[in-house]
Amino acid sequence: MQYVATIAPVHEDGSECTHTGRNTQDSGCAGRSGYRASCAGGGCTWSKSGTWPSALAEDRSHHLNSHLTASTALQGA
Ligand SMILES: [Zn+2]
Ligand SMILES: [Zn+2]
After folding, report:
1. CA nearest 67: which of 52, 45, 49?
2. What integer pLDDT is reported at residue 74 of this predicted model?
3. What angle do CA 36, 24, 35 make, to 5 degrees?
4. φ/ψ bin of 23: left (φ > 0), alpha (ψ from -120 to 50), beta (otherwise)
5. Rg (alpha carbons) of the chain, rounded to whole number
6. Quick count: other Cβ atoms within 10 Å of Cβ 28?
7. CB environment 11-22: b (16+ within 10 A), e (fewer)
8. Which ligand does the CA of 67 lie closest to?
9. CA 72 – ligand 2 centroid, Å
10. Residue 22 phi, psi dihedral angles, 5° rounding
């Protein structure tokens, strides 16, 4: 099972910001309020919001490690 956790910028209402951020007036971007890390794969719906991507990167790696630990335990059973 492959799990992929991504970190993306989000708006204040929680929607993902896909604007380039270069020219907010042209892109219609309402402004970014922070970042969200989310996991996809295997039906996992984990996500976490934060102000700084560096802090989320740490949470993300912890989360992915938990998947590794779980699959290892499963194989051992
Ligand atoms: Zn935006
Ligand atoms: Zn996950």
Report:
1. 45
2. 55
3. 10
4. beta
5. 15
6. 7
7. eeeeeebebeee
8. 2
9. 15
10. -80, -45
Backbone angles phi, psi at 6, to 5 degrees: -115, 160
Assign residue 72 a region: left if phi > 0, alpha if psi is -120 to 50, beta otherwise?
Answer: alpha
**Tokens in use for 64?**
């992915």
- Kindly list the protein residues that place their beta carbon closer than 5 angstroms to ligand 2, a single-atom ion: 39, 44, 46
CA 58 – ligand 1 centroid, Å: 24
Q: Which pLDDT tens digit goes with each residue over 35-76?
A: 999 998 888 999 999 999 999 999 999 999 999 887 665 554
C-alpha 60 – ligand 1 centre gap (Å): 22
